[in-house]
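ZP: hey, is the magnesium ion complex queued? I don't see it on the tracker
AM: it wasn't, my bad. submitting now with these inputs:
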Amino acid sequence: MARIVMKFGGTSMAGLERIRASAARVKREVDAGNQVAVVVSAMAGETDRLVNFCREASPLHDNSEYDVVVSSGEQVTAGLLAIVLQSMGVAARSWLGWQLPLHTSATHSAARIRGMDTDGIAETLDSGVVATIPGFQGLTEGGRITTLGRGGSDTSAVAVAAALKADRCDIYTDVDGVYTTDPRIVPRARKLEKITFEEMLELASVGAKVLQTRSVELAMKQHVKLRVLSSFRDVPGTDIVAEEEIGEHFVEDQLITGIAYNRAEAEVTLTRVADKPGSVAAIFKPLAANEVNVDMIIQNIADADGRTDVTFTVPRTEVPRVMDMLAAVQDEIGYESASYNDRVAKLSVVGVGMKSHTGVAATMFTALGERGINIDSITTSEIKISVLIAEEYVELAVRVLHSAYGLDDEEAAA
Ligand code: ADP
Ligand code: ASP
Ligand code: MG
């Protein structure tokens, strides 16, 4: 007997037919003698609908009430799944975020998990009853409902698995596993049998939405056995593993493991900034104080009169705030003009193979250059290279790089 956590995403919960199909998977695990806790997302599209209600109600709404609204989608699916399981002869009950409770910080709309009480739910599982748990939601110390940020049900599932000391955490979704890139953009993407936590973390953080970044972080820290697999088809999925478990040949043969993109950033440019000590600090200090995440930064070489352009990226949603902050410090910094471009996309290649190989960046720049795709800025880490390009080229660029690194599945339809 094993104790397992199964997580079903929005597409796997989208309507009763899909809920029945997911419930059948739960029943299979129960029939095999396993204890099962199931973490669910809201029906696909439901969270967007609820978010829009809040925005329409008031653009500057109270985030604690936003959480009350947007967390409700998961309550519906957790209850429906329990009803469907019962109708199949499987004993089940729901455990809502506040009932567990799953404790979080009070950062409404982006709360962080602090821990979870397990006594009640462990008793449920030990008595052979399936627990259905709404993902995405938690409870503050003060007793208010929180949500964990978009895509947060993955993180709920990993937290539940860690707290329950589950033997594994299976993330069921609408693709067959983790691919070399988004299979919806590149039909020749290949499914990975295994990927390291480190690589998955980088891929998730640069835009591969198949797992929420924090779920990977938590699984890595808490040693949760994590798998991504399809709720639609009975095919092997992808194991997320420690680097030692990946096998030598994987690392040596494969320079690049995956490619991801995101359209969530905007580029801000300040012209004619004085090239003197402290001026760059003066730009970024107010942004840091207001918790704006700055990602890529480039500073050009100063011209003859000691002035230079500084370009950096920030989340697109923060642009209005950032422009205000920069306007407020214009005199202090002494720049000439501030402008932004939100028609950009960040493209990233990730692979542990980069640690021991050279030429990865050259391949990237050459492949993009040959297609006439201009690179605006570049950042790198030990296992990742990211470039900023014009948004209109992003899908082409992903396909070009996928071929350039030899990742195409030649048997798949082009
Ligand atoms: P769920 O609702 O199950 O949480 P998500 O929509 O959050 O599902 O994540 C699954 C989606 O992630 C897929 O439909 C796919 O388009 C996208 N995706 C992006 N990059 C990848 C990748 N490298 N491998 C697999 N899926 C990816
Ligand atoms: N329903 C939430 C969202 O759409 C959480 C999740 O599905 O993971 O972001
Ligand atoms: Mg998701």
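AM: back. The chain has two domains: 3-174, 245-414.
ZP: great, adding it to the tracker
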